Amino acid sequence: MATPVAPPPRRARNLAELVVNYVTEQIAAKALNPGDKLPTESQLMHTLSVSRTVIREAISRLQAGKIIETRHGIGSFVLEPPREKLGIDVVPATTLRDVLAILELRISLETECAGLAAQRAKPDDIARIRAALDAIETSRHNGQDSVDADLQFHVSVARATGNRYFVDILSQMGSALIPRKRLDSAGIARADPDAYLSLVNLEHESIFEAISRHDAEGARAAMRMHLSNSRERLRRANGVGEGNS
């Protein structure tokens, strides 16, 4: 009887592919969702019976494929899957006229967004919106630019609707949504920057409070008031009439 031939040793590349497939299958099965933390290297090593080198190779591949992101000292997290763009090409706001036009668009879009968020927000959504507001305040008190935190607040409200298209639209608008990087809104409004941002943040708090108590009409009114106030402050400061916006 012939001596059986031993199977070839498993190559690290094939093993890394096994780990990649395992993670992507977990994501496809909803066992891991966007924002979830991956099991630790040790847990994956034990589950899949592979070495730490194999796990790290697989992690590198998952990072390159934008399936996960790794935060130093914290761990690796599942990313939102890439989506086809909606064909929106927003020119960054560089003039007062641009800012007023964007605010008109935002009033129509984000008013309903806030109402739906109030109806549908889960505890995690409320916590995410609260965290964005706290980040705005922290940036302001530290004298830092709060544009990114401000954008995250509005995107977090959109995310609470459970409708990914609100999130897609606001995310694609990006910095055009909060144009302070390109246009000194506080200066245009002829206000002290800190007082101006303090007022804006009070309006943000009103939106948050309505959403957190699931008051849909209150959230719509608070968002409409916030964006309408922003528009009117700029108009009055610059002598721009309704028909000239």
Automatic annotation (TrEMBL):
PANTHER family: TRANSCRIPTIONAL REGULATOR, GNTR FAMILY (PTHR43537), UXU OPERON TRANSCRIPTIONAL REGULATOR (PTHR43537:SF5)
Pfam families named among the record's database cross-references: FCD, GntR
Keywords for the protein's UniProt record, in alphabetical order: DNA-binding, Transcription, Transcription regulation
Lineage: Bacteria, Pseudomonadati, Pseudomonadota, Betaproteobacteria, Burkholderiales
GO molecular function terms noted in the UniProt entry: DNA binding; DNA-binding transcription factor activity
Protein name per Swiss-Prot or TrEMBL: HTH-type transcriptional regulator LutR
Annotated SUPFAM superfamilies: GntR ligand-binding domain-like, Winged helix' DNA-binding domain
Cell division as UniProt keyword: no
Domain HTH gntR-type: 13-81
CDD domains (UniProt xref): WHTH_GntR
Species of origin: Paraburkholderia caffeinitolerans
